[in-house]
Design a protein that fits this description.
- This protein has 311 residues and is an alpha/beta fold.
- It has one domain: 2-Layer Sandwich (Transcription Regulator spoIIAA), CATH 3.30.750.200.
- It is 37% helix and 16% strand.
- The protein is built from eleven helices and nine strands.
- A seven-stranded parallel beta sheet has the order 1-2-3-4-5-6-8.
- Helix 7 links the parallel strand 5 and strand 6.
- Helix 7 packs parallel to helix 9 and helix 9 crosses helix 10.
């Protein structure tokens, strides 16, 4: 019956005529929730490398990181066109001149057709948004904003350091400048099940987002959450629960949202759980199977009950 959701591959084919390979980059930026600006502990789920590759710690510049990755990615994905994804920590947290230098190293490669910037909604001063808007006139810019949940009680529980209104304001300012905005969400956060995640989608639907990235909550050995997990205070989703939840949420999402990803890529060396998250093809297959069993498609209508999703 064809694809049941609007995948990144489909968007890239429609927008660019073919596939682009993503190069994850570590520019060495920090995070205001770690350096004392707003907090010092960081989000409870965040690992020591800020979900990055650790390339900057190894002394690699942005130029070196791209040069080191493009040959391998060209062979693997059979394309010489790339997305430069500033992934680690908060990539608008720093002086504008530093941002210009970092982004400029990536944009110096003609093969880079998209600049994707992962950051927090509380690190987007007007001049930084203006910089991204200026770049967007020549290369497509994706602003990837970590939210994780639209529930302020959950954001406090995970020590996120901002509320949902901060995210809403940031999206509005980005949209005014014509930037494409993707939201990052984590399923299975403490105290949240399918109803809470469905409410998050409800609150996000009218904001004019470009798309979404879904991740399941996982625990790294070097994340603050590890202590609670080892003490038996954190319950993680099973693969079946995660697949049911993701499938139900896909049915709730607007048909125009680009679903960039449906599962994360945790570092296997530090992953405490859930172990099933190491097998990405298995996770994606489970979600596709659940979509078929529930006869769900993106934008297909009202949400499902917990019983129907199997949660």
């Amino acid at each position: 019956m064809g694809e049941r959701y609007y995948s990144l591959n489909r968007y890239l084919k429609e927008r660019f005529g073919g596939r682009l390979a993503k190069i994850p980059l570590d520019a060495g930026f920090g995070c205001p929730n770690r350096d004392g600006t707003i907090g010092s502990g960081g989000c409870v789920f965040c690992d020591r490398r800020g979900s990055g590759t650790g390339a900057r710690e190894r002394g690699l510049s942005i130029t070196a990181q791209i040069e080191g990755a493009r040959e391998y990615l060209s062979r693997r994905y059979r394309t010489g066109r790339f997305i430069a994804y500033f992934q680690a920590f908060s990539n608008t947290f720093g002086p504008v001149e530093e941002l210009k230098r970092a982004y400029g190293q990536a944009l110096a490669f003609d093969q880079v057709e998209v600049l994707a910037v992962g950051t927090r909604p509380d690190c987007l001063e007007e001049e930084k948004l203006d910089l991204l808007a200026a770049i967007n006139r020549d290369r497509e810019v994706w602003l990837e904003l970590g939210l994780q949940s639209a529930h302020d009680s959950t954001l406090r529980r995970i020590n996120r350091g901002h509320d949902f209104q901060t995210f809403r304001r940031a999206v509005g300012k980005a949209a005014e400048r014509g930037l494409k905005v993707f939201v990052h969400l984590i399923l299975g956060l403490p105290g949240e099940g399918y109803p809470e995640a469905a409410r998050t989608i409800d609150l996000l639907r009218p904001l004019g987002l470009t798309g979404v990235k879904l991740h399941g909550l996982h625990v790294s050995s070097d994340a603050p959450l590890a202590r609670e997990y080892r003490a038996g205070k954190v319950k993680l989703l099973s693969l079946e629960e995660y697949a049911g939840m993701a499938a139900g949420l896909i049915g709730l999402m607007p048909p125009g949202w680009v679903i960039q990803r449906l599962t994360g890529d945790p570092n296997p060396e530090t992953l405490l759980g859930p172990k099933w998250m190491r097998d990405k093809p298995r996770v994606l297959a489970a979600i596709r199977k659940r979509l078929e069993e529930l006869n769900l498609r993106q934008g297909g209508g009202p949400g499902l009950t917990e019983q129907k999703t199997g949660l």
